[in-house]
Amino acid sequence: MAGSGYDFDGWMRAQLAQVEQGLSRWVRRDAPAGLGEAMRYAVLDGGKRLRPLLVLAACDAVGGHPEAALRAACAVELIHAYSLVHDDMPCMDNDVLRRGKPTVHVRFGQAQALLAGDALQALAFELLTPEDGVPAAMQARLCRLLAQAAGADGMAGGQAIDLASVGLQLTQEQLRRMHCLKTGALLRASVVMGAACGQAGGVADQALAQYGAAVGLAFQVVDDVLDVTQDSATLGKTAGKDAASDKPTYVSLMGLAPAKAYAEALRAEAHAALAASGLRETRALSALADMVVRRSH
Amino acid sequence: MAGSGYDFDGWMRAQLAQVEQGLSRWVRRDAPAGLGEAMRYAVLDGGKRLRPLLVLAACDAVGGHPEAALRAACAVELIHAYSLVHDDMPCMDNDVLRRGKPTVHVRFGQAQALLAGDALQALAFELLTPEDGVPAAMQARLCRLLAQAAGADGMAGGQAIDLASVGLQLTQEQLRRMHCLKTGALLRASVVMGAACGQAGGVADQALAQYGAAVGLAFQVVDDVLDVTQDSATLGKTAGKDAASDKPTYVSLMGLAPAKAYAEALRAEAHAALAASGLRETRALSALADMVVRRSH
């Protein structure tokens, strides 16, 4: 996928091993009254770990702080995991299947699912602020970026728009805004947080943020495409759900072929941003953009 | 309540004005799709603001950083407010009345309540990490303390124990552990975070942590007492709820008079900790310990 001789798969395997190990160490089973088990169930053994990979690839690109990046990688995954737990609950999407397994509230009850999500969010910020090993200024910056991406001006705000738009006819611009917040904010933050583990400087940071925004939007466009082109078994979650619940999607708005073309255009935009960054080691980021657009689930 | 000539009421009025102003500025109405309104409803115009007052009093005692303390004060209140929103939901306590008003999910629906709670938690960490105005090391430490107090080893863990103990006979030690986490962790953290806005040093920090633990536990004991001695109108929430739902309380375990005596003993413990702290300006903390134990709602 990337330049000659570059072993993206090897890079990815090594990163994923680190992330799984980090998550398994930091999400502890011994939290009280089954809470730890519910948290681990929500986080471990599943998921593409796209956000952690974006953090780690961006950190590589800027030659950043490895310990900070691993913590940031796990922290964004915890935020992502908590959002899925809450999103699946009966009062939200009421989904019973996630990554091919019963969702957390189905397995552990709604109250425990609610608490597990809450505790995962707190844990994300705890991971970012160790007693030592990461410079304090970097810790504070990573917390700020994550809090902004997760909150009302980011993911949670996007979910509120999503809730409010069921059954409505959105313009493409309104749909773009919703997804920029709902899924885009955290994907973009993953890249920006990876960059914040180093000191690449203004031009590179800006280019990486553009890359993150393009990949974040592409991710959602592809998600909408896959929702209508794949079955539940392939996706590991309920397919056709958005269409059935009358949610606006890129496919319902643009049609299938234009949505696919749009995803390709965003992929090109991501590559262009990397080229403009002036950074030398962008092969993992480049391959991740390809992976996001060309994935089958 | 405190030493001669000390105007605790004046101190409190000034602090509360600051906190209300901070919360109103930072919890913005313009968050998307009604989310900001739900967040403000959950946070503003209600609540005793005990946790913010503990932060600000502890900061005063150590001569700490005022901007950091105000942010910390508002951040702990946001965590407290989000926990109430989620706690009141049908899958948890299913409560319809809070601070004399319909609870957030009754007013805005369950999905919006869930999101509002989630966004309030994120906002707490955003408040602690401003671009400038607070030293980075202090920001990072405040985040760490808050994340630990809010998460699986703190408030969320305590709630999980609470859920699991309905209908069970707990020992006093088990009940103490549950409350140390469920309400105690955040109250204690409020004091410790206030102290972290300054540099009081080991002995004073330890004494303040002891004070915070005693006040935190006293708060819960008094809560249990008020649940059986006061009516809903006075409490601003449903009275007799714990007894009705067969939850273990200090009153059910010890009896009413011994529970009251225990609260008084904890008040004395808090005062003793302040005396041992070596800090000069502990009058607000002292008066707050009295207020917690002698409150009527």
Map the helices and strands.
The structure is a homodimer of 297-residue chains.
Chain A: H1 8-26, H2 35-43, H3 50-62, H4 66-87, E1 97-98, E2 101-102, H5 104-108, H6 110-127, H7 136-150, H8 155-165, H9 172-196, H10 202-229, H11 232-235, H12 241-244, H13 250-254, H14 256-276, H15 283-294
Antiparallel strand pairs in A: 1-2
Helix pairs in contact in A: 1-4, 2-6, 3-4, 3-9, 3-15, 4-6, 4-7, 4-9, 7-9, 8-9, 9-10, 10-14, 10-15, 14-15
Q: In percent terms, what proportion of residues of chain A is strand?
A: under 5%
Provide mean pLDDT of chain A, rounded: 93
Largest sheet of chain A: 2 strands, antiparallel
How is the quaternary structure best described? homodimer
Largest sheet of chain A, order of strands side by side?
Answer: 1-2
* Total number of helices of chain A: 15
List the secondary-structure elements of chain A in sequence, H or E. HHHHEEHHHHHHHHHHH
Rough outline of chain A: globular
Description of the structure:
Two copies of one chain form a homodimer. The first copy, chain A, has 297 residues and is an all-alpha fold. Chain A is 71% helix and 1% strand. Chain A has helices spanning 8-26, 35-43, 50-62, 66-87, 104-108, 110-127, 136-150, 155-165, 172-196, 202-229, 232-235, 241-244, 250-254, 256-276, 283-294, and strands at residues 97-98, 101-102. At the A-B interface, helix 2, helix 4, helix 6, helix 7 and helix 8 of A face helix 2, helix 4, helix 6, helix 7 and helix 8 of B.
